[in-house]
Amino acid sequence: MSVQLAAYSTSTGEAFQFWVLGTVAVIGALCTVFMKKAVHSALCLAGTMIILAIFYLANGAYFLGIVQIVVYTGAIMMLFLFVVMLVGVTAADSLKETIKGQRWLALLSGLGFGVLLIAGIGHASLTEFTGLTEANAHGNVEGLAALIFTKYVFAFEITGALLITAAVGAMVLTHRERTERALTQRELSERRVREGKHVPPLPAPGVYARHNAVDVQGLLPDGTPSELTVSRTLRERGQIRDVSAEALNDLKALEQRAEERLERAAITPPHLKRTEEASK
Amino acid sequence: MNPVNYLYLAALLFTIGATGVLIRRNAIVVFMCIELMLNACNLAFVTFSRMHGNLDGQIIAFFTMVVAAAEVVVGLAIIVSLFRSRHSASVDDASLMKL
């Protein structure tokens, strides 16, 4: 492998690998941009990153290839998926444009940028490829370590400071201080009695509705849904499921099915019909 | 195959990521597109390292990865706290300072 790395032209195997996996990587990147749901985008991006890791390995960056898989697909993408689940998988991207024609302008400028970038690389004189045979002679990891702890040791130290700052920053940003003591169950019940409102337990969700899931409001005797029946957290998040139209839809579907059955009954052979009449 | 093709692939991936940042409205997807751009840069660095025959490019790519990890942690924390206060991850909704 290291002999091939020195060559100006790569082996056929690497070329084949590049064209197959490169296509998949570009498709994955496009899917990241154009998939409607954030979860799908994250998974496509994870696939692209794994392919990039293979490319690093093919380019002689053995340490980076493994780090790419461990850090990017292992840690960063899982963090992304975690946040996607936290923020809400159901939240689809709004398709409304805030600035008119922004989408097309963005596509156009992206295309122009890409053309400029690729034309720039095409015009650069990248004729000689030294290859990493010499640099990797004593092992890739050893070579990297020698550089990190001599030439780049200052940057490496600063990286440590950066990581600590990032960890502290994340904690500060997501931490929420409780400003007052949480009320105990006794205090809550005493307050309920004092206010004389909802002294018995709150009504259960979905009792008079057709479902008994926690996110379905119970119906009052007159058929209107009651907000009280659903947990306050769900109410504040706006995750209450409204099933009041579902019963009507079910009924409609049932009627349609019945009609289909009747039509089929109408084209049944006449002798069956006669038996039905006879039975009457 | 000429190894320069890796640079073309990196440029393509970077362009796709940049376009995604401009097009998408969901903050998380915008963030993913930024990650894609960083990865494309890393691929270019690794290819340059192979081109010049020394490991400095790989060191830079390694530092990029560290910075990306730190950036993701802080950025996702910002998105989560933004979502907590606005109940939306859309970048259009955070327009409090607009006239």
Report on the architecture of this protein:
The complex is a heterodimer of chains A (280) and B (99). Chain A is built from eleven helices and two strands; from the N terminus they run ααααααααββααα. Chain A is an all-alpha fold. The N terminus and C terminus of chain A are likely disordered. Chain A is extended and about 85 Å long. In chain B, helix 1 runs antiparallel to helix 2 and helix 2 runs antiparallel to helix 3. The mean pLDDT of chain B is 89. The chains are: A mainly alpha (280), B mainly alpha (99). The interface between A and B is large, with 89 and 72 residues.
Task: Write a compact overview of the structure shown.
The complex is a heterodimer of chains A (280) and B (99). Chain A has 280 residues and is mainly α.
Spell out the key features of this protein.
heterodimer, A: 63% helix, 1% strand, disordered N terminus, B: 99 residues, mainly alpha, Helix Hairpins, 0% strand, elongated, cell membrane (chain B), transport (chain B), oxidoreductase (chain B), NADH dehydrogenase (quinone) (non-electrogenic) activity (chain B)
Topology of this protein?
The complex is a heterodimer of chains A (280) and B (99).
Chain A: H1 2-6, H2 12-34, H3 38-58, H4 62-87, H5 102-123, H6 140-148, H7 153-174, H8 185-195, E1 218-219, E2 225-226, H9 232-237, H10 246-266, H11 270-279
Antiparallel strand pairs in A: 1-2
Chain B: H1 4-23, H2 27-52, H3 56-86
> Sheet with the most strands of chain A?
2 strands, antiparallel
Q: What's the overall geometry of chain B?
A: elongated
Q: Tell me the CATH topology of chain B.
A: Helix Hairpins
Q: How much is the average pLDDT of chain A?
A: 82
CATH class of chain B: Mainly Alpha
